[in-house]
From TrEMBL:
EC supergroup of this enzyme: transferase
Keyword Ligase tagged: no
Transmembrane segments annotated in the record for this chain: 39-64, 76-100, 112-131
Domain of life of the source: Bacteria
Pfam families reported for this sequence: HATPase_c, HisKA_3
Catalytic activity, reaction form: ATP + protein L-histidine = ADP + protein N-phospho-L-histidine
Entry keyword set: ATP-binding, Kinase, Membrane, Nucleotide-binding, Phosphoprotein, Transferase, Transmembrane, Transmembrane helix, Two-component regulatory system
Enzyme Commission number, as recorded: 2.7.13.3
Gene3D superfamilies, sorted: 1.20.5.1930, Histidine kinase-like ATPase, C-terminal domain (3.30.565.10)
Residue stretches making up the Histidine kinase/HSP90-like ATPase domain: 267-360
Protein name: histidine kinase
A GO term from the CC aspect: membrane
Length: 360
């Protein structure tokens, strides 16, 4: 813009050329130094050089929508108004033909109207649009704040519900399991024979493990974020203990491994452990004494876990169940990309089959 002005518009322009040269130099230096208002500077300079009065419309609108301070807007309004109204006086005093607006021969009333048209109207439009933007921004911020408050209230409600469940489990379940462990310990001490003593010892050990697991669950429920329990997560190394416990409880269980056993991702091993534990628990509840086979089949990309029991040797009293065990297993496997099938067989047996990804 500076070179364009200096080359083409300086010759033969007199005072106007000198003023244009000074304005071009100042605008160019300002843009090179700050680069804050390039559109405003170029528009003002174009209006100065070419007497393009519509530039005031653009500059006024830009000032209204860009300037963040009321003082700056007022300063611009005063400067623009003074420039438009003071040009005729400047021309008469200096004898120049400088023009920033419409014809200088306008009557004073017409000149005031031109100020309203060139400065007031675009300034008002820009201020209205800027105010509307601020209102919309405020509405968006209010909506975001309401969402955050709603999420906080929901989290507080979840925390309160977890605390209530933890209290109920501690007061009811933990109390009854503790009594069971105490009675089993007393029976172990006063057992009339070795078989009863072994059974009582198994009940006591199982009850103590249940209390440990229950304490970990209560810790999860009471923690703010529902974090994982602090205890070591179960792995496939714990399957032997599950099998031995079931065998000690009178359930004929056999464990088979097909393929080459290898370490798996922790999430996959936890899922497989829970599948076997839930399946054996269901056998104890609904088919006590039935021959059961636990099979781990290692495939290149998956681990298949199958727990199949034969029909119970004799009708047994089924223990009460919630019906949520298999549903919980499906959800747990879905989290690791696995799949669960569970179905009864025509011969009266039941099978649980899980397919778990063996890669992270």
């Amino acid at each position: 813009m500076f070179a364009f002005t200096a080359v083409d518009y300086l010759p033969g322009r007199g005072d106007v050329a000198v003023l244009a040269f000074a304005a071009a130099s100042g605008a160019t230096a300002a843009l090179a130094r700050w680069r804050l208002w390039p559109l405003f500077a170029v528009t003002a300079l174009g209006s100065l050089l070419f007497s393009t009065w519509p530039g005031f419309i653009v500059a006024s609108y830009y000032a209204a929508t860009t300037l963040r301070s009321d003082r700056l807007v007022a300063a611009y309004t005063g400067a623009a108004t003074a420039a438009l109204l003071g040009v005729p006086l400047l021309n008469s005093v200096l004898g120049t033909g400088f023009a920033l607006g419409p014809d200088d021969r306008m009557a004073p009333g017409e000149r005031v109207f031109s100020v309203l048209l060139l400065v007031g109207s675009p300034l008002a439009a820009g201020l209205w649009i800027n105010a509307r933007r601020q209102v919309l921004a405020g509405l968006r911020e209010r909506g975001a704040r309401l969402e955050r408050e709603q999420a906080a209230r929901a989290e507080q409600a979840r925390a309160a519900e977890r605390a209530r469940i933890a209290r109920e489990m501690h007061d009811v379940v933990a109390h009854k399991v503790s009594l069971m462990v105490l009675h089993a310990g007393a029976l172990e001490v006063e057992a009339p024979d070795d078989g009863t003593e072994r059974t009582a010892a198994l009940i006591r050990a199982t009850g103590r493990e249940a209390l440990t697991d229950l304490r970990e669950v209560l810790e999860v429920l009471r923690s703010p974020g529902g974090a994982d329990p602090l205890g070591a997560p179960p792995t496939l190394d714990g399957l032997d203990r599950l099998v031995h416990q079931s065998q000690a409880a009178g359930l004929p269980v056999r464990r088979d491994v097909e393929g080459t056993a290898r370490p798996l991702p922790a999430a996959a091993e936890r899922a497989a452990y829970h599948v076997v534990r839930e399946a054996l628990t269901n056998v104890h509840k609904h088919a006590g004494g039935a021959a059961t086979r636990v099979t781990l089949r290692y495939l290149p990309a998956h681990l298949e876990v199958t727990v199949r029991n034969d029909p119970p040797p004799s009708p047994a009293e089924a223990l009460p169940g919630s019906g949520l065990g298999l549903a919980g297993l499906r959800e747990r496997l879905a989290l690791v990309g696995g799949h669960l099938d569970a179905a009864a067989h025509p011969d009266g047996g039941f099978a649980v089959h899980a397919r778990i990804p063996a890669r992270p």
